[in-house]
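We emphasize that the prediction below concerns an isolated chain of 234 residues; any contacts that depend on oligomerization or on bound cofactors are therefore not represented. The input was used exactly as deposited, without trimming of termini.
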Amino acid sequence: MLVRQVYLTLMAQILSKSKLANDDLKMLRAILALTMALPRDTLLIGDVVRIGERLTHLTANLSFRAHTDGAAHWAISTQFAIPVIVTISQLDDRPDVSLVTLCLALILLSFPKEISEDVLAGIIPPRNEANIQVVNYDEAKDLVPLEKAGLISMENVCSVTRATDPKSDDWVPIVVITRDDITSEWLVGEGRGNSGQILFAEVLVELVYHLFAGEIELETLYPKIMSLVKKTVV
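Result of the prediction step, given as a token string:
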């Protein structure tokens, strides 16, 4: 596919640096925008693996490894008022889910200042680690009893879980369940939000909620998250 080849050529050029400068967030945001501009089913899972491996060589704030089936595992070291480590794990071997993990990693790498200052207002969260697990809905049905969580069907493009007891369940992962068409409405350039922004907003809300062990006002958090997510609209 021509679009895939053009994208991979652009990525090779952008990622040809030996190292990223500390202030090179614009480049990471450009990679995010280009990735979200891809039509559905453009990339192979191996493409995401190669991009992840190259990103790892560019910045010390990111590590990436792929499982034998190509499933992605990211570890992001960032600053949310304090040093925070977020791991993102893919639970299936679908290319679209692998693409979701890449974009989530880019969001966390690209907007640390905005998350720290605009969303958290400089308040130090009591936790400094979080684990995000991403899986397609149909694949998840074979792994976990979704019906017990009330997820009988996928009416929205994604669903993000929350710990029953956020104060004590500090090691419970944030599980992101995606629908088959999660990347079909990601096309940027229309100046409006899409399913990508919905995904980012829901994951960021639950990430902040987890880091604060549930001790945060959701009514004030939502508008701040939405303001941040609007910055990803092109």
